[in-house]
Write a structure and sequence with these properties.
Elements lengths: L4 H48 L5 E3 L5 E4 L1 H6 L13 H6 L2 H21 L11
Antiparallel strand pairs: 1-2
Length: about 130
C-alpha cells in the first residue's frame, strides 16, 4: 500500500499541528506552575504579616463567629487560649436558634467595642496595652 503525495502532506501537517499543540501545552503548564508559585509566596507573606502583627487581627464568618485571631490580638486581649472563643463547628451552631446567635454576636460586638474604647491601659503583666 503506497501513501499518496496528498496523504503524506496531510500527515506532515497533522504532525506539525501536534508538535505545536505540545509546545503550547508545555508553555501553559510552565505559566501555571509560575502562577501557583507566585500565589504560594503571596499567601506565605500574608500569613507572616498577620502572624507578626501586634494589631488584633480577627477573621469572623458572616454570622459574626470568630474563626481566627492572630497572636498579637491574643496578647492585646490577654487571651492565652483562643479555643473557647472559636466557632466549634457549624453543626453545633446550626442547632442554636437564630435569636441566640444574634444575641451572642451583639454581646461579642459590645465587648470588643468597650475594649477598643478603653484605650491604653495596664495589662496584667504590668505592660501597656
Amino acid at each position: 500500500m503506497t501513501v499518496s503525495e496528498h496523504d503524506q502532506e496531510r500527515l506532515q501537517a497533522l504532525e506539525s499541528e501536534l508538535s505545536n499543540t505540545k509546545a503550547e501545552l508545555a508553555r501553559v503548564a510552565r505559566e501555571q506552575a509560575l502562577a501557583a508559585e507566585s500565589l504560594r509566596a503571596s499567601e506565605e507573606l500574608k500569613s507572616r504579616l498577620i502572624a507578626c502583627s501586634r494589631d488584633c487581627i480577627k477573621i469572623l464568618d458572616l454570622e459574626g463567629r470568630l474563626l481566627f485571631m492572630n497572636e498579637g490580638g491574643m496578647q492585646v486581649l490577654e487571651i492565652c487560649d483562643i479555643s473557647p472563643f472559636l466557632d466549634p463547628g457549624r453543626a453545633q451552631n446550626a442547632k442554636r436558634p437564630r435569636r441566640q446567635c444574634e444575641r451572642h454576636r451583639t454581646e461579642a460586638s459590645a465587648a470588643l467595642s468597650v475594649i477598643s474604647k478603653q484605650g491604653p491601659r495596664d495589662s496584667r503583666d504590668g505592660g501597656m496595652l
